[in-house]
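WARN retry 2 of 3 for item q-0093 after timeout on previous attempt; input resubmitted unchanged.
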Amino acid sequence: MKQRGITLIELMITVAVLAILATIAVPSFSEYIRNDRITKQSNEVYAAIMLMRSEAVRTGSNVTMCAAQTGPNDSAGSACYATASATDYSNGALFFIDRGTLGSFDTGDELINYIPALSKMTIKGTKRFFSLSPRGTLNETTAVSLVLCDDDADTRGGKEIKISPLGRGEVIDLSSSTLNCNAATN
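OK item q-0093 returned
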């Protein structure tokens, strides 16, 4: 009578092959997850900017996006960073109908959207705030950009959201952009 089964050597070879396959697949899968997270967040920011544009036209008012110093859930209330060098949106971003001082969340301004602080990601802009006019165009003469990256500041998988003076937005891979994760300047 013949015995059926596997030998210890066959089992060890199978385990070794599985280990080799796992070491190849795991890094690829984590890169996929990383790129998916950046793509998802850039799509959310892009959608918020397009909502901002439609609100500017709908309400006939300036609508501003600024780097948030504090958000709507903070006890101090919502506030934008006041210094021109504060272009890091990683702590959150406010979107509001700007009826007061342009770029400042004043009394009478109406909050329409808020992006909270991001986990394991950075968003840096070329300006601390930008505003869209009642016609849906930028209140700037040059394009404004936001750069989204993983918190390791590596450009692979990073995205740039560029808003033209006409108020149109586009999402660009950082590999095709002149910007990078560390210095977002036009």
